[in-house]
Specification:
single chain, four-stranded antiparallel beta sheet
């Protein structure tokens, strides 16, 4: 197939999260590695891993340009507390009360 390439990336338990980590307009290979009661590990090619989000708290990984700087930020939705936990690329952490219990976020890059 022209224009497609298969790349081995991460472990079977990793969750792929499409995002543009560096703001160049291209989707970067990124996964969130759940690790139980410790911070999940965000792994993006050519960027140091970041611990953010906790599997045991029910966190759901997602990404978006929450600070409008042109690059996607990593985030997790914590449904039990209805909080969006955002970590932007400069290291600023934001917690927002958002939505209601039982709601599920949709990543803007998901295909329905």
């Amino acid at each position: 197939m022209t224009g497609r390439k298969t790349v081995k990336w991460g472990y079977r338990t990793d969750i792929p999260v499409p995002l543009d980590a560096d703001g160049d307009g291209a989707i970067d290979l990124t996964t969130w590695r759940p690790r139980g009661a410790v911070s999940g590990l965000w792994i993006t090619r050519d960027i140091s891993p970041i611990g953010w989000g906790i599997e045991a708290a029910g966190d759901i990984p997602l990404a978006g340009d929450f600070d409008n700087d042109g690059a996607d930020d990593i985030a997790t939705w914590r449904p039990r507390r209805t909080k969006l936990l955002i970590y932007n690329r400069t290291g600023i952490k934001t917690r927002l009360a958002l939505g209601e219990e039982g709601e599920t976020p949709i990543n803007r890059r998901c295909a329905l």
